[in-house]
Amino acid sequence: MPSVIKNRQIVEDHWQPVADDAELPAGPVIVSQTRWQQERVALRERGEPVGVRLPNTANVAELADDLPALALVVLEFPKFADGRAYSQARLLRERYGYRGEIRATGDVLRDQLFFMTRSGFDAFELRADRNLEDALEAFNDFSESYQPAADQPLPLYRRGR
Q: What pTM was estimated for this model as a whole?
């Protein structure tokens, strides 16, 4: 079973990505935004956790009413230089109050993990050619953050010592 980084630990990934035309297996599944929109009632009635994979071009507002039914939202990074999923994660956490897992997938690099966490991500699916143990060190790159963000709503000067 593949592994992901979740809450700053390497864990087994029990989620199963499912193509739009494939049958649903037992257990937690990740479906596309299109499949979710077409089959949301049936997916909810399964009694199993459901996650939705969003392209970085999707408007997360379209998913806002469905967030309480979703255990996972997967946001795509098609290339490391495309940061639109940072904004999606921040909107999910701060505007829509989503408390489930937000996972980064695609071209996710070690150097981005700290900043992705600040934006609201709490899980990371790295490419097969990336080392998960090395990536864990990214969370120790900085000891403090000055600005408020999804992971720390107060700026440093308001936190006190």
A: 0.91
Per mean pLDDT, which range of 49-53, 91-95, 136-140 is the poorest?
136-140
**Average pLDDT of the segment spanning 49-73:** 97
Across the beta sheet with 3-6, what order do the strands follow? 9-12, 3-6, 123-125, 101-106, 72-77, 50-54, 29-32, 16-17
Would you say residue 7 has pLDDT above 90? yes
- C-alpha separations of 4 from 56, 124, 148 in Å: 20, 6, 26
Specify the DSSP class assigned to residue 39. H
Query: Which domains are delineated in the chain?
Result: 3-159 (3.20.20.70)
Distance CA 88, CA 18 (A): 22
